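Bumping with the actual sequence this time:
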Amino acid sequence: MGEKTEVDAKSRRNFLKMASVSAPAAVAAVSLSGTTAKAAVQEEKGSGLRDTAHTRAYFESAKF
């Protein structure tokens, strides 16, 4: 029983070692690749509701 937990502890320890090494390596690989990311361009939309038949019907039904 003690041997099994020791094996589990070693595999967990190895996983944490690999995780701590691979994350900075991935960041370094991306930063050294030389490519740049382009920002997504969002079109400017008008503010407020659009005047459609649906909105006109709602406003008519909301009148008291």
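The tokens above came from a reply further down the thread. The mean pLDDT is 81.
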